[in-house]
Amino acid sequence: MSEPISLTVLFGASKGFIDISTRIAKSLKLIESIESKVDLLTQIEFNAAWKTLLHACNSSSSDEQKSVLINNARIGFTKATCLEKGERLFYAYLGLAICDYLLDDVNNVKTALIEATKISIYKDIYQQERDLSLGFNKYGINSIINSYNPANMLNLIKGIFAYPLLLAQKIEIQKYNKSKSDLIPHILKKINAEQQMITLVTKANQPSVVFTSLESKSLELINLQKQCLEIITNI
To answer: Any idea of the CA torsion for 9, 11, 12, 17, to the nearest 10 degrees?
Structure first.
């Protein structure tokens, strides 16, 4: 199992001046960790950007030549943000933020990280992968009870008891979706509501390897979103 990604280790010292070689050394492990966690077989721009950024960080060339490679990767990630969805979109913005960080572009680091935090981990990753894994569709019983896999009566009962809490989180998420605010307190409320949704739905569907695995992956991404907000606040 790969080590947890730590964005705060990479971006934590960005307030002061750091030599590009030091920044690259910090970013290299993060880049390799991300590549091990995401499918790199779909969009060309996304894949090429990651490979270019990794190549820049491994390069023994001058800082000027490395900066050219990093800028090329930044162009690729910018294009990828218009093409990707879900988890890959999240990592495209994260890759863009890393490029901006390596190029000392603090304002655009913040912009990219904000966009990464606005992505819905519950709807665009957890819910879609759950439905794909379990074969749900809009015509099935799942459209009636919405967030529960009625594998047995016990799950249905647990779902009914959890529904008031689930509804409260849905309202919070819908409130954010109407505003699409860039304000950190608003985004954090949305992230916390999605975290609660994922936890509640997973708990109501135990025992289940599918739900537990999706919860683990989704909560890791949510933790990264919270790290993004922390970084934005501190840089």
So the answer is: 130
CA distances from 205 to 62, 122, 152 (A): 54, 16, 9
Torsion angle defined by CA atoms of residues 17, 21, 27 and 28, in that order, rounded to the nearest 10 degrees: 180
Q: Tens digit of pLDDT for each residue in 70-118?
A: 999 999 999 999 999 999 999 999 999 999 999 989 899 999 999 999 9
What are the start-end ranges of the H helices in the chain? 7-11, 20-37, 44-58, 63-80, 86-102, 106-118, 121, 128-134, 142-145, 153-179, 184-204, 209-234
| Residue-wise burial string across 134-144, b where 16 or more C-beta atoms lie within 10 A, e elsewhere | eebeeeeebee
Instruction: Please check whether residue 123 is in contact with residue 165, taking contact to mean a CB–CB distance below 8 angstroms.
Output: no
Alpha carbon 212 to its chain's center: 18
Question: Which H/E stretch holds residue 4?
Answer: none
- Cβ–Cβ contacts within 10 Å for residue 104, how many? 13
192-212: string of b/e by CB count within 10 Å (b at 16+)?
ebbbbbbbbbbebbeebeebe
